[in-house]
Amino acid sequence: MDEEKIIVCRCEDITLKEIRDLIHEGYTTVEEIKRVSRAGMGPCQGKTCGPIIAREISKITGKPIEEVYKPSNRPPFGGLFFKEIVGESNEE
Amino acid sequence: MKNKASIVVIGGGITGVSIAYNLAKAGVKDIVLLERKYLAYGATGRCGAGVRQQWGTKQNCILARESVKIFENIKDELNIDIDIEFKQKGYLLLAFTEKEWNQFQKNVQLQNSLGINSKLLTPDEAKNIVPFLNTDNLLGAAYYEKDGHANPFLTTIAYAKAAENLGVEINKGVEVLDILVKNGRIKGVYTNHGFIETEKVVNAAGGWSQNIGKMVGIDLPVYSERHEILATEPVNEILGPMVMSFSYNIYCQQTPHGSFIMGYGPKERTTSLRSSWQFLESMAQKVTRLLPPTKNLRVVRQWAGYYNMSPDHQPIVSKCEEIEGFYLAIGFSGHGFMLAPAVGILMKDIILEKKLSWDVVLDIGRFKRNEIIKEPSVV
After folding, report:
1. Looking at the complex, does the CB of residue B153 fall below 8 Å from at least one CB of chain A?
2. Which residues belong to any copy of the BFD-like [2Fe-2S]-binding domain (chain A) (predicted)?
3. pLDDT, tens digit only, all 92 positions of chain A
């Protein structure tokens, strides 16, 4: 398959090729790739792309996957509207 | 990694890379930068990404003004083709109390005298800039259209690449364990990857700068505060400027990517970098009251970071009097990202013993001399 057509981060629309290019450029942690490319910053918070990116890093650098993938789970888990927090009393 | 360096810069945030770049640009060879994790791991990568020139002290105004000149021409300055997403759509600062309003009048006068053409606005004029702004109890606002935003990660990487192009060695994943001092002089740095012989060390470790100070036996007058921040899903552009209120204790902007970033400081001295539900709830109340359409935004992520606070909320860019060869770029009090381009130049001036590029007093001796003027405009 064409790595330019494989979407790794669906939230931010980032392809496998972009991820591999970043790893070859020296960004060899999931956190760095997130900061440079926004992969994993969308609504799913890297739940889908995180493990895939980690696998790519592990394959290219030879580092064990446990060393590469230590996700920092940041709240809120599922994405929340402000209006769900403040309630309807704040509605105009 | 080299085992000998002319200068070791500790910290791979925006301040460290800017200092390394400016030293290399001035012709210094064998500079080594050490970063414990990865570039922009600490405060830089966790910051609000705002760039403002509307300050209440001369020093902060000058540093910000000069930094914006560099942000505006960053590709030419660094000779690097990275888009740092610099946007200039202004900062709108809101005054809800008489005290704030009086302060804004003084600030604007000071800023104007330094070539920063900020202005005071009536609540109606503020509404012209942000039509959905809730102006209840608003006395007025201050606005400068040349303030804005830049992407902290990409700016850090741009500076780091430019530094590397000039010969700087940047080492990620290298932790400083101790610093060797003999007879009051720096002799080297112990790391988890070995010893580096050097006579000059720059402490640009941000939230961890006190720890580095302790390694040379100095108790630095800074401390780290945990501040919290969140980001929403991207939406079409509805908000141009950064909106900020000191009495609400909030800042909120829409990035060029479309997401909103907003934060405030609970002012906690804690070593935790976790985010709290209390922050999310409190921020939801504040932002939906001030900018009602934000209630339809979905929060996707929240996090925390350190403000490295100095006693007067202005940076300490200085040599250390007690230890020969030890330099400090610390205490940015939440504004290190936006001031870093100018700070890199000042530190270069100090290390190379040149006249400072601008008339500012940022040495650590100012606290002893009791010359401090506290920055009044901090969130």
Report:
1. yes
2. 7-54
3. 788 999 999 999 999 999 999 999 999 999 999 999 999 998 888 988 999 999 999 999 999 998 888 877 788 877 889 999 998 664 44
- Whether B299 sits inside 8 A of A76 (CB atoms) is yes
Q: How many CA atoms lie within 13 A of A4 on its CB side?
A: 0
Contact assignment for A90 to B38 by CB distance below 8 Å: no
Give the closest of B40, B284, B300 to A45, CB-based. B300
What CATH number is given to the structural domain containing B106? 3.30.9.10
B289/B318 same-domain check:
no
What is the value of pTM for the model shown? 0.94
Range 262-291 of B in CB contact (< 8 A) with A: 275, 277, 280-281, 284-285, 287-289
For the range B372-375, what are the long-range contacts, defined as Cβ-Cβ under 8 Å and sequence gap of 24 or more?
Answer: B372/B311, B372/B312, B372/B314, B373/B57, B373/B312, B374/B57, B374/B311, B374/B312, B374/B313, B375/B55, B375/B56, B375/B57, B375/B60, B375/B312, B375/B313, B375/B314, B375/B333
B299 inside 8 A of chain A by CB: yes
Residues B240 and B297 in one domain: yes
Q: For residues B361 and B236, state if they share a domain.
A: no
What range does the domain containing B164 cover?
A: 7-48+153-222+312-366
Residue B278 inside a domain? The answer is yes
Task: Choose from A82, A83, A88, A90 for mutation: most chain B CBs within 10 A.
Answer: A82
Name the residue among B41, B284, B303 with its Cβ closest to that of A86.
Answer: B284
Structural domains of chain B, count: 2
Is the same domain home to B215 and B288?
Answer: no
Smallest Cα–Cα separation from B373: which of B178, B31, B107, B64?
B107
Please indicate, yes or no, whether residues B168 and B211 belong to a single structural domain of this protein: yes
- Per-residue pLDDT tens digits for B57-109: 999 999 999 999 999 999 999 999 999 999 999 999 999 999 999 999 999 99
Question: Is B73 part of any domain?
Answer: no
Q: In terms of domains, do B131 and B232 share one?
A: yes
B308-365, pLDDT tens digit by residue? 999 999 999 999 999 999 999 999 999 999 999 999 999 999 999 999 999 999 999 9
